[in-house]
Amino acid sequence: MRGDLVRKLAARVAATGLAVLAFLTLALTGATGWGLALAVAALAAAGWERRVRPAAASTAEAELLAAAILVGYSRRLDAGFDPALAATALVLLGLVLLVGPLRQAGDLEIRAANLPVRSWTPLVAARLGDALLVLLAVVALAAALVLPAWVALLVALAVGAGAGAVAADLAKRRFRPGAGGSAVARALRAHRPEFLLHFSAPPGSEYQVTMWLPYLERIGRPFFVMVREPEFLAPIAAATSAPVVYCPTLKAMDEALVPSLKVAFYVNHGAKNSHCIRFSQLTHVQIHHGDSDKAPSANPVTALFDRNFVAGRAAIDRYARAGVDIPTEKFVVVGRPQVESIEVRRAPATGLANPTVLYTPTWTGHHADANYCSLPVGETIVRGLLARGATVILRAHPYTGQNPASARQLARLTELLAADRARTGRQHVFGAAASRELSLVDCVNRSDALVSDVSGVISDYLYSGKPYAVTDMVGDGDRFVERFPLAGSGYVLRRDAGNLDEVLGLLLDTDPKAAARWGTRAHYLGDFPAESYAEAFLSAARRELEPGWNPPAPRAADAMTHSPTA
């Protein structure tokens, strides 16, 4: 989060500072060439700011730069009043004033991918700001080359014509909508989806959806994904053949929620979920994007949903332990289908000469009470693993880069692993190779043991039957296992990593908790046959789509018979 703030602040300072400097140079000095160069640099900075802050308003900077460039152009021509240059100024002024409102209007339009519709207007509206920056750069170049003013005017008129077409189409959509609704709404009605996945989250969170897409597709019923932020439209659409619809407003949601829908699934507790839960004709099912003993995994907001699909009985106990009162009949134990491809090791593998260890530090969280990140002692952990001859797979949380300190600590670990790989030839895996080229399942299957912070990775790893260590970064000491019961079947590494040698000995040499983990596995992940593990989720989802289905309490209770033995 702090890293984002630094980048946004730097972009704002660069764009504004260079614009002011360019204007002062062109307006108050005779250094026209330098002033135009500064103007182009300011435009580049403004473009960077638009990448860092997509919603950034740059009207003032654009006006300042347009005025500065026109002053420089007039000086270069040195021909007195030029009607073409005056007309160019008027077109630029109109564009500067219109681009922001048109982009905002386009942002309010429903958009879709993987549907037979063409929503070109909102896409073009979103790019008008970039087009304006390019136009100003072209005018600056024309000034620098002392081209006739009509050249700049023709380019400006071309961009203005495009903006006019966008404005006309947006106005038509707003004031004269079609009788059957938007093209997206009509295409959705033709698609006849029976369920949707509603998704809202911070940037970089699309993994929460993509982990579920294969299983939603295996349900075998038509569906679509509704995203509430525009940056998720393209990456999620690339991961599925199902329609993906961007609904920025409640009005857009009204259009997208077609009569054929029966169920809405959710993968997190995003605030915008409430926008969809208000549709009482749907059954609302929370399926989560991981299972862990973290505090957010017992969020009281879960009580809002009609059903709460959980991996195992442990999740239900977690809510009770946190004092969150949710009726038993709302819970359905479905396992964690994403683990079905994890290879299970039944026999303990101890005393390996060159083990492969997966290390998965989590991020610092939104709040201090959810900070389980072990990166402050990550170097000690990695050095300890290297000293034991281990090959390390380092897979950090996707949000790690949002904290500058965590990013630096992670960079230090990659340096250590790269240096050791060069020196010893051990094939450590880190960076993009661990986070993008390999899936979490790949990393689990390649490893012999895990070192992790409190996170959902441990639950997934538990399915393999292999040993794991958990870092106690909250400093709970003897109370740690009480607060995070999954650590009871693992080996707890203290906050200062002072017991690292002892923990690594238990983890890699003797593994005395190997037998106990199987009971914990059933408690956390359900006791379903390995050959049909994902069917528990698929069957539960299909039942929700049956007309009039309302599972009685005894059925839910029967599904939750597993108790911990560890």
Automatic annotation (TrEMBL):
Keyword Transmembrane on entry: yes
Pfam family, one: Glyphos_transf
Ranges annotated as spanning the membrane: 84-102, 123-143, 149-168
UniProt KW keywords: Membrane, Transmembrane, Transmembrane helix
Protein name, per record: CDP-glycerol glycerophosphotransferase family protein
Native source species: Micromonospora harpali
